[in-house]
UniProtKB/TrEMBL annotation:
Organism of provenance: Micromonospora acroterricola
Protein name: non-specific serine/threonine protein kinase
Domain of life: Bacteria
Any one GO MF annotation of this record: protein serine/threonine kinase activity
Pfam families on file: Pkinase (PF00069)
Database matches in Gene3D superfamilies: Phosphorylase Kinase, domain 1, Transferase(Phosphotransferase) domain 1
Domain named Protein kinase: residues: 6-261
Keyword Plastid annotated: no
Length: 339
C-alpha cells in the first residue's frame, strides 16, 4: 500500500529506470497503473535528483492533456522522497510486444495505429507539450482495440522547463531520435513526427529505419545516411518517406500526414505528397483553435479472421519487391473481450 490508498497488485512493466504496477485504488474502487521510478545504483546523487525532476515533469506534461489516445494521469504521490505517478490502467500490450510475438503489421493496420498516435501528438503539440520519446515501447494496444500513447517521461513544455541534458547526452531511444535531436539536441513538434515515422517503419518492417548493432553505430548512421528501405510499406510508403525527411522544414505536418495515413488505412488516396505537402517549420505548432471533438477518434481494426489487404485500389505502390506472406490482422491477435 502506498499513500494509504493504492494497493500494489502485480508488476505489469519494467524499464531501465522504473517499474509499472497494476494497483487498486481503495478509495475509488478502481484499478490504476502506478509508475515507480527506480534509479540505477550507479547514478550520482545529482543524477538521481534529475531523474526525480523528470518524473515530475512527466506528471505535469501528462496532466495538461485530456484525450482518448493519451493515457490519463490521476495523481502523484511521494514515497520515501520519490514521486510515484498514478495513471489510468489500460489492459494492453505494447506495440513492441505485438511485433515481437506476432510479427509486423499489414500497412493498413499500421496506418490506423499511426492515425491514433497522430491524434495524440496533435493534442500534445496543441497544448504546447512535446513527447520526445515516441517509440513502439510507448504505444499501448489495448485489449478492446484502442491505441494509446503513454510515458511522457522525456516530455517538455514549449517555453517551459527545458530538457535536462548535458553536452554529448541524448535522451531517448537512439533508433527513434530525429537527426536534428541527435546532432543538436533540438526538440520540436517536427522531431516528434520523425519519431512517429520511425515507429511506423518498425510496425511494417519489424525493425527501425536506423537499427544497428550498437547505439553509437545507430547515431553514426543517423548523422550521415538515409533511412533503411521499407520494401513492405505498400500504401504507407509516402507517409514514411515524408515523415523521415532529414530536414525538419521539409517534413510532413500533421494535416498532410493525416490525409496520407487515412488514404493508406482506407485504400483511398488523394494528391501525391509532392503536390500537396506543407512543410512544418521546427517551431510551428498545430492550430490551437482546432476542436478535437469534431474528429472521429475511433480506430477501426479489421474484424477477427478477416484478412487485411496489403494494397487496395488506387493505392500508391512502392517499387516492386519480393512478396512475403501477409501478417495476421492486429484485431485477431487481441482478446475479443476486455478483462
Amino acid at each position: 500500500m502506498i499513500a494509504g490508498r493504492y494497493r500494489l497488485l502485480d508488476l505489469v512493466g519494467r524499464g531501465g529506470m522504473g517499474r509499472v504496477w497494476r494497483a487498486h485504488d481503495e478509495m475509488l474502487h478502481r484499478d490504476v497503473a502506478v509508475k515507480e521510478v527506480v534509479p540505477p545504483s550507479w547514478l550520482a546523487d545529482h543524477e538521481r535528483a534529475e531523474l526525480r525532476s523528470r518524473t515530475l515533469r512527466e506528471a505535469r506534461a501528462a496532466a495538461r492533456l485530456n484525450h482518448p489516445t493519451v493515457v490519463r494521469l490521476y495523481d502523484v504521490v511521494p514515497v520515501e522522497g520519490s514521486p510515484w505517478i498514478v495513471m489510468e490502467y489500460v489492459p494492453s500490450r505494447t506495440l513492441q510486444d505485438v511485433l515481437d510475438t506476432e510479427g509486423p503489421l499489414a500497412p493498413p493496420e499500421a496506418a490506423r495505429v499511426g492515425l491514433a498516435l497522430l491524434d495524440a501528438l496533435h493534442a500534445a503539440h496543441t497544448a504546447g507539450v512535446l513527447h520526445r520519446d515516441v517509440k513502439p515501447q510507448n504505444v499501448l494496444v489495448a485489449h478492446d482495440g484502442r491505441v494509446m500513447l503513454t510515458d511522457f517521461g522525456l516530455a517538455t513544455f514549449d517555453g517551459g522547463d527545458g530538457a535536462m541534458t548535458r553536452p554529448g547526452m541524448v535522451l531517448g531511444s537512439p533508433q527513434y531520435v530525429a537527426p536534428e535531436r541527435a546532432a543538436e539536441g533540438v526538440s520540436t513538434a517536427a522531431a516528434d513526427l520523425w519519431s512517429l515515422g520511425a515507429t511506423l517503419h518498425t510496425a511494417v518492417e519489424g525493425r527501425s529505419p536506423y537499427a544497428r548493432s550498437t547505439a553509437m553505430a545507430t547515431l553514426s548512421a543517423l548523422a550521415a545516411g538515409p533511412p533503411d528501405p521499407a520494401p513492405h510499406a505498400g500504401p504507407l510508403a509516402p507517409v514514411l518517406a515524408g515523415l523521415l525527411r532529414r530536414d525538419p522544414r521539409d517534413r510532413l505536418d500533421h494535416e498532410t500526414a493525416r490525409r496520407l495515413l487515412t488514404g493508406a488505412a482506407t485504400g483511398v488516396t488523394g494528391p501525391s505528397p509532392d503536390a500537396a505537402d506543407r512543410a512544418i517549420a521546427p517551431d510551428d505548432r498545430p492550430d490551437a483553435s482546432t476542436d478535437p471533438s469534431d474528429q472521429d477518434r475511433t480506430i477501426p481494426l479489421p474484424e477477427p479472421g478477416r484478412p487485411a489487404d496489403r494494397a487496395g485500389p488506387g493505392v500508391i505502390h512502392p517499387p516492386e519487391t519480393p512478396p512475403r506472406s501477409g501478417p495476421t490482422p492486429l484485431a485477431s491477435r487481441l482478446p475479443t473481450t476486455s478483462p
